[in-house]
Amino acid sequence: MRLSTVILPTRRWHDGGREAWLRAERLGFHAAYTYDHLSWRVPFRDGPWFGAIPTLTAAAAATDRMRLGTLVTSPNFRHPVTLAKELISLDDISGGRITLGIGAGGNGFDATALGQEAWTPRERADRFAEFVPLLDRLLTEETVTHEGAFYSAGGAQNIPGCVQRPRLPFAVAATGPRGLKLAARHGQAWVTTGDPKVNETGGPDESREALRGQMEKLGKACADAGRDVRELDKILLTGFTPDRPLESFDAFVDFAGRHVELGFTEIVIHAPIADSMFAADEKVFERIATEAPAQLR
After folding, report:
1. pLDDT digits (tens, 9 = 90+) for 201-230
2. How far apart, in whole angstroms, are the C-alpha atoms of residue 131 and residue 78?
3. Whole-prediction pTM value?
4. CA torsion, points 234, 192, 239, 76, in degrees to nearest 10?
5. For residues 271 and 6, is the Cβ–Cβ distance under 8 A?
């Protein structure tokens, strides 16, 4: 079981931001991710929020071993051509340590920040279904021309390509059939935060049962694509299920063990942020980072 963290981009780099990424590496996390939004929900909506790609570039220069990535990037304000160029550059700067977490996006601030109307769920799924395969091509082929329903590329060149071959890994966030199909075809990992409805009204047992169902659907999508589901890492982004895994060290070990039994290979916890949904005891967080993985082998 791999243990990773999310560092929200809320601090100025020279006022705690850099130190947060250095601490994550010192604590031994497998990876440190950040959200790729233009802003996020309350209480973060009206406060500092920095860009994911520049933040990850700075983190890549400051760290040496830990993997880095987004959880998650979406088409809400990204275009495959420009994103591919930034990712190739970021993968180069990091020495091949980047994972792209990618999802269809939602109805938050990002959905209308460029002045467009928010897309319906079907429109988001349609765009995602074109975005992911095109981005895959842009990161693996030197020159790409594409004329699609939503995105175009006119002889877009991406030389020399990624350090990681054939490209940096995709961690596809998905729960519906179309998204799971993309994960099965293009993903090196699959990401979930659980079932949104169960997260709002259910308990831990119901949450695990819902996750078990998602795993089964992922397995079917992989089988339909002619792929062994065991080839994909299964990533659980915590902080949204009804559980409280950061309440204590023992609570996390129990939580993680139950979810490893479901088939998850990587669990991601948020670095604590006071007065938010991610508030937690810093000492508990650090003990989990340094001691929990050994208990879950």
Report:
1. 999 999 999 999 999 999 999 999 999 999
2. 9
3. 0.96
4. 130
5. yes
